[in-house]
């Protein structure tokens, strides 16, 4: 029985991959028709991974910004205030350093985080496409993601009894933001006619996308970790020297313009359902306060597209 099932499945796969390239209205059971007669409105879902360029990650390097969005100097930086800006902060740092008193550790500007880096994050969105025929169309889509940037800062032990008392202690710093990207683009499927002339299947075809985008960015949080037994510290909340809450940072937002280009493979799963798998190089403008960066962001995306009418 198993051998018979395997044989049937093999024949079906072989038939799918070797059949002459025709487009069928499988949903209605009609005869084959020419690809140029296919058109209509498609809706879909985008899922993928987004890798932000690291140039914008410096916003989360612990310096922070004032109400106008300008970077603060070290003396009034968010990280310096969280480490030694109040008596409760000093006591928390003492605990993070293993209980040593404040005169046996030191935090200077050289201890501030070096290069911050974005981790790849999950991306999701909605897709609306109008196809004039099987191979050419225009589309609009909205994608959202929450880039996370990570780095490391140090605190110097200044004890003099042994080398261990003079080592650097390393701690993690993290930035979180929101991005929403609106793309307006052109979709072009390639190679259909050449494959039809050679009698090959057109179920899988290459495609290219290109267009313009608008990127909305929102600063969300800036956190540090001082060890597993101490709660993460939100740098955007400010306290007076006695440890009483006094203020919080203005949450910066920004809007930038750019463009994108992408390529991938289209998989036709019937007359109404299509899967696109591809890569997009998105040249985005990231604006937050005085920061204004333009660089390529890298996106790997899967789009599930369905013909509505």
Describe the 3D structure:
This protein has 309 residues and is mostly beta strands. It has four helices and 14 strands. The chain has helices at residues 2-18, 78-84, 87-96, 192-197; strands at residues 40-51, 105-106, 117-119, 121-131, 136-145, 148-157, 168-189, 204-225, 233-234, 237-239, 245-248, 253-268, 273-288, 291-307. The strands form two sheets. The chain has an eight-stranded antiparallel beta barrel. A two-stranded antiparallel sheet has the order 10-11. A hairpin with a 4-residue loop joins strand 4 and strand 5. The longest helix has 17 residues, at 2-18. The chain starts with a helix and ends with a strand.
In short:
The protein has 309 residues and is mainly beta. The protein has four helices and 14 strands.
Descriptive keywords:
mainly beta, 8-stranded antiparallel β-barrel, 14 strands, 13% helix
């Amino acid at each position: 029985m198993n051998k018979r099932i395997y044989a049937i499945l093999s024949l079906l796969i072989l038939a799918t991959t070797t059949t002459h390239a025709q487009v069928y209205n499988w949903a209605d059971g009609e005869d084959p028709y020419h690809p140029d007669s296919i058109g209509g409105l498609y809706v879909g879902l985008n899922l993928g991974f987004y890798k932000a360029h690291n140039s914008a990650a410096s916003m989360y390097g612990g310096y922070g910004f004032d109400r106008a969005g300008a970077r603060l100097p070290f003396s009034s930086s968010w990280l310096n205030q969280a480490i030694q800006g109040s008596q409760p902060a000093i006591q928390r740092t003492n605990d993070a350093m293993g209980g040593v008193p404040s005169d046996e550790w030191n935090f200077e500007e050289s201890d501030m985080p070096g290069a911050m880096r974005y981790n790849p994050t999950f991306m999701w969105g909605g897709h609306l496409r109008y196809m004039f025929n099987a191979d050419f169309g225009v589309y609009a889509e909205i994608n959202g993601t929450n880039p996370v940037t990570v780095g490391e800062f140090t605190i110097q032990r200044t004890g003099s009894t042994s080398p261990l008392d003079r080592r650097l202690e390393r701690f993690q710093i993290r930035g979180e933001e929101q991005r929403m990207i609106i793309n307006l683009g052109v979709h072009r499927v390639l190679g259909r006619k050449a494959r039809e002339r050679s009698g090959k299947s057109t179920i899988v075809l290459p495609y290219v996308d290109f267009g313009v985008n608008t990127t909305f960015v929102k600063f969300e949080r800036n956190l540090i970790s001082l060890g597993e037994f101490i709660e993460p510290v939100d740098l955007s909340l400010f306290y007076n020297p006695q440890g009483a809450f006094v203020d919080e940072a203005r949450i910066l937002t920004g809007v930038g313009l750019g463009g994108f280009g992408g390529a991938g493979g289209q998989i036709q799963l019937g007359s109404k359902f299509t899967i696109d798998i591809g890569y997009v190089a998105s040249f985005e403008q990231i604006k937050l306060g005085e920061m204004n960066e333009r660089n390529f962001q890298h996106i790997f995306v899967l789009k599930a597209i369905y013909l509505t009418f």
